[in-house]
Predict the 3D structure of the following.
Amino acid sequence: MTAPTTASPATGDERDPATAPEEADAFDRDVLPTPPGATGTLLRSLLAPMRARVALTTFLLLLQQAAVQAGPLLVAYAIDRAVPAFREDDLGPLVAVGVGYLGCALAGGGLQYAFLIASARVNQDVLLDLRGRIFRHAQALSVDFHERYTSGRLISRSTTDVESLRELLSEGLQELVTVVLSFLYISAMLLWLDLGLGAVAVASFGPLYLLVRVYQRRAGRVFTARSSAVAAVIVKFVETVNGIRPVRAFRREAVNEADFRVLNQRHERTNGDALLEMARYVVGSRLVANTAVALIVLWGARRVADGSLALGVLAAAVLYLRRLYDPIDRLGMFLNSYQSAAASLEKIAGLLAQEPSVPEPAAPRELPARRSGMPGREVVFDGVGFGYRTGGEVLPRFDLTLPAGQTVAVVGTTGAGKSTLAKLLARFYDPTAGRVLLDGVDLRELATAELRRGVVMVTQEAFLFSGTVADNIALGRPDASREDIERAAKAIGAHEFISALPDGYDTDVRRRGGRISAGQRQLVSFARALLADPAVLILDEATSSLDVPGERAVQAAMATVLKGRTAVVIAHRLSTVEIADRVLVMERGRIVEDGTPAELVAGTGRFADLHRAWRDSLA
């Protein structure tokens, strides 16, 4: 027996990243840190490819507003010119007003239709791009991120938050542009028609602006809280549904319902706060607008009476004022959508700003070609240490060499560091010290695709995707023939049960492989790994879901599965160790024993004790 060399004693045991101290408040609060300017950068990058189409939609809206705002001018002309001309039997001006009004109405409707079509296409393309970015980025982020940031929050980012942005793009922006253009058009027209009336109308926008600013500040806080409340409801729902078996087994229904009621009431409260802020804004804006209209009408009527203002001009001014103030309510709807979308976009930007902790190399290398018949690849842990970013050490520095073609079993108590060692080899994490080498190449220098061709990990979970059995087996080799798929299934003993399924290899296993048993899912994952034909195979407690007959069947096939490749087998069941060439025993992150199974069983160390206890349990 040979003892491995370690540079320092262990100071910590293996921990799940989901419970590591760095589970900082950012993850608990559903708010990832967003770098300054990231939200604006994201929005600009979404709109940049559509710059020409955005310009077209803006131009259409400009023309539409010009057509719409011509109406009150025609009314003023009709009152002051066309009606007096009609009294003198001159029908021309009145006909011209009617034709002009009809033409403006038709033009306004047609341009509005064209604008809605053009803007809808821009909006949908932006949302399509954004959803794609979220999905791609979620897949690119490292495993440790997904172990900390729940799937429910990711679902909230790609559904609820994207939907908030859709509402802003589909309705809110049009309202904002309409209000701005209306203000510019109408202010110019009122000042042109009568400088005094125009000045009073423009001055009335001072109180309205202050009202908008107050609403914007208050609503911003409300909608940020509402977005987090929605995400919390989704997270609780997803976690409960995904864990329905333990929920039912441990009678958690009442407790979960009480927890959900609290979250749902919080959601209701934040929705109510949003509606209350909106109501305050609408009431205040209408009060200011109606007061301004009343004052202008009274002053204008007095001027009409003394002959200093034409009646048609007053009528046009009142119509313009109504058109100017009516969109103020809709501006509140825009601010409503804007605050909700701004909070959502900030969260999406925070997610997209997360960098993978296991990045792609800037200048990737390729693994050296395997010579024909060469067994697997050599694995070297060179001064490797691992700890969480908060400082909790899991694996102290150690050196370890796994010769090509060797099957190594790693055993030890829960939390000893076995799975962490396997995840470093699979490069789910990077070591905090040292290097992991594959045939002399640092894993950090390999592109992900190159690494995954060389190293495959079969986990205890045995996750299957919706689709056929054949599709799941061919996951690592989508171009594999049916013969290759069946050959892999036969090699690990899965062909018989697969053939007995209703549609054989074409049977849909359904969501998470729920149509077949846990042991059968594990066999399918073994066939998947065998078909991928990696040089290094990692089995992380991969037989734990099998019953005794199933375990024996897999063990009988393992000799064939592992032949010609380097294998690391993380095992709780010592029966699995019997197929290994070498056994590593780990305690508190250190390798405390290293030797062949026979050597360690014959000794007096930890493995001998474990083996003796296991034998006694069988008796």
About this structure: Residues 541 and 571 are 5 Å apart (CA to CA). The longest helix spans residues 253-305. The mean pLDDT is 80.
